Amino acid sequence: MENMNDPQAVIDAANALIEKVQQGQDDIDAFYRAENLDPEKVNHILEQSMTDEIRAKAQQEFDADMEAVEREVAEEAARRSFQNSSTPPSGSPDINMMV
User: Fold this and answer.
1) How far apart, in whole angstroms, are the C-alpha atoms of residue 95 and residue 47?
2) Residue 64 in 3-state DSSP?
3) Cα-Cα end-to-end distance for the chain
4) How far apart are CA 32 and CA 28, in angstroms?
5) Of the residues 15, 42, 52, 75, which has the fewest C-beta atoms closer than 10 A?
6) How far apart are CA 3 and CA 13, in angstroms?
7) Separation of alpha carbons 78 and 8, rounded Å
């Protein structure tokens, strides 16, 4: 796994994931077209056939995923804050040097 302490690595990983999801959607649309189906109509029918129970379950799972992401971001921010505060500035004198 890439170094997730590097902001650019996090951005690159997120962009790669977005691209993968978009490619997956393009592949699904191509499959529908190969079957002589209109992807927009198929998606519309699937949305209409989704019951309130299924929609609520999907929303619940999405919310849980978002909470996990937010928790992970907060934990990483706390770790970085601790790392930054526990490292003495390079210009400060060593206490042993002063005695």
Assistant:
1) 67
2) helix
3) 46
4) 6
5) 52
6) 10
7) 19
